[in-house]
Here is the input.
Amino acid sequence: MDQVQKTFIKLHSKMFDLIIENHSLLLLLEHFEIDFTVNNKTVEEICKENNINPEIFIAIGNIYNGYNPSKITNINNDDIHCILKMLKNTHQYYKQDKYPEIQEYVRELYENNNSAEIVLVEKFFNEYFTEVIEHLDYEDDIAFPYFSQLLEIDMQNKNIDFSAYTYKEHHTDIESKLADLKNLLLKHLNLKNDLSLRRKLIFSLFELEFDLNVHSLIEEKLLIPMIQKIEKRKHE
Amino acid sequence: MNNDFISIGIAEPSDIIYDGLSNILHKSGINVRLFKIDSIDGFDEKMNTDVVIINPVLILNKTKEFKKIRKVFHNIHWVGLVYSLFSNDTLSLFDDIISINDPCEAIYKVIGKFGDEHPDEKVSKQQEQLSERETDVLVQLVSGLSNKEIADKLNISTHTVISHRKNISLKTGIKSQSGLTIYALTKNIISLDKLA
Here is the structure.
């Protein structure tokens, strides 16, 4: 089947139709803390109700729908706070929801197949999980507060070791280990049974990968350029 | 010419025709990469183009420019995509002609000259198997040696070690060391007691 391009989200798109077409948009709503019962409302109405700049909602929504991030022209501090809050929510989703879920599947797999390979897979995943948590904590505890500060006060001396480059490095690493796991599961591991468990595990990996991808795009293509713009303005 | 895929530029003003042709090419089983060309003005070679499929409308009254471009990019195979009447003079400017009424097979025949029919199969077969030397490097790698240490041990340069490592990751699809350890174990390249 050919891939069919998803709708490009616009102000007057009906949220319900968009969800029917791409149910991953439920994640978008969840991350923005918007209720799933969308009635017959348009994107514009939903944004207004939830106090979100529609330009940002649409830009991020279209990343979920597979489009390259578009430039956001008019942003203010509230918008950046809004993006930061949204990203923090996605961190919660990884930490409390997706990773534990995958961890549980790997553990079950290990219980059913007490083989050396699976022991190592579990170890691999747990180490990887720890790494991810470290990165997310770095964002939550250092990067994001730095961004917020940048908005509030005139920062004369910034002693925060932050670079967009390190950011990207982290992301690449997180994504490549996830790819390793998928490769092992689909290409190399000698497993015989547990089709349903393995399917759940692989589905979860794909779901996680999808959201992580969107997440990096938001940070690298939307957030960081905004931050750099502000930094530049402050230095002038 | 690239071995992995055929790079095809399509210069066709109609979106309907462009999308239809793209669909046909993607379904062909030939590994293709497509990109759109809006006009031949300022044509520049992208991605080591192998083939350009072009609607002759775009070169009407521009034959001089077109001949010049052909001369510069003489490695490109120029295919006319014809769905209205053109003079033989115009049509003779192309290496091949595809007509709008052609069945898919005729199009594959024109494009297929530039690549293997089933490149995916071939590539994957030769790509999957690690060479003896790569296996040696893998064994050392998963036992925790650095590139330099592996180079010394196997009597090869660090540069060679790095290139082997690249190939290992390419063939297995696995980049991290811990992932490769699991791979080596599943293929019985190492045993568990060796790891301890």
